[in-house]
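This part of the workshop introduces the protein records we will be handling. An example says more than a description, so a record of this kind follows:
>
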Amino acid sequence: MVSNTKLFPEQKQFVKEYCKDNKDVLFYSNERVTIMVKPEFKGSRMVAVSFSTMSPDEKKYRKSVGKYYTISNFENGQYVLMDWTTFYNIVNQGEGYWSM
């Protein structure tokens, strides 16, 4: 069986509202993994980094699904804290590999 996950309207609304209420949140993806980055607090050099991976059974990458699951993981305490420079260096090692 092949999965082809789509969000329910309520989930789409949740992502939209979350992004509206958290303008300092950034999302990166490589069309398999989605990363959410959120400053620990305004002006902080530390960021909370949450990940979501696409299921191997998925046929199509859906940006909104990745965003939903990274937000969900973050809200459930599934994130790591790191300084912004370290995170920036990680996503820029493979230049052009990650997109916003």
User: Anything to note?
Assistant: The longest helix spans residues 9-21. The mean pLDDT is 87. Residues 9-91 form one domain.
